[in-house]
Amino acid sequence: MTGLIITGGSIDCAFAGAFLKDKTFDMVIAVDGGLAAVKQLDIRPDAIVGDFDTVKGELLEEYRAIEGITFEQHQPEKDETDTELALRTAMEAGVSDMVLLGAAGGRLDHSIGNIHLLYACLQKGVKASIVDEKNRLYILDQGKTYRSGEVWGKYISFLPLTEEVHGITLKGFKYPLTNRDIRIGTSLCISNELEAETGTITFWDGVLICVESHD
């Protein structure tokens, strides 16, 4: 199953509308304040999740009147963020491939936390990515092949999520590497570019944050 989660961070609705055009998802979840973007994008959510502290009451009541939408309301005093709860709801429903909109660009603590939530998805065998008008971000624990017509933008950056990542080899990139180890605290693998039609990254231990981006 595929899933779309729209959270309460920064969303460029013009971009989101173009990105979602002709795409379908098996499950759509609005997260608290993200319901405003759902309304603007004219998307019908399957579920609305959160403590509802950042969504207008009249908007919430409008969606409560629509049959077939599941409401999952939580107390503001809780251990998890609303986005984590939405991811849990999606995974419990069987979603194994999901896109998050509005998961970056707002509060920095939530943005960083959402990146860590992608790692939690990876650990459960769920593919997940954060997308906005300039970036596509996801987590890698194994190698990947990149094709020039499929990447999000000009730049491809790799940052260690674990303390160390061992044996990075980059082929087909402007700045190749061979069996290189990197640690948290380095910017060595930021702003690389494909030099060939395809490029590959391989490594034998560790976890990387990958960001495909453009200016």
UniProtKB/TrEMBL annotation:
It holds the Pfam family TPK_B1_binding. It comes from the Bacteria. Residues 143-209 form the Thiamin pyrophosphokinase thiamin-binding domain. GO terms for molecular function: thiamine diphosphokinase activity. Its EC number is 2.7.6.2. Keywords: ATP-binding, Kinase, Nucleotide-binding, Transferase. It is an enzyme of class 2 (transferase). This is Thiamine diphosphokinase. It comes from Hungatella hominis. The lineage of its organism: Bacteria, Bacillati, Bacillota, Clostridia, Lachnospirales.
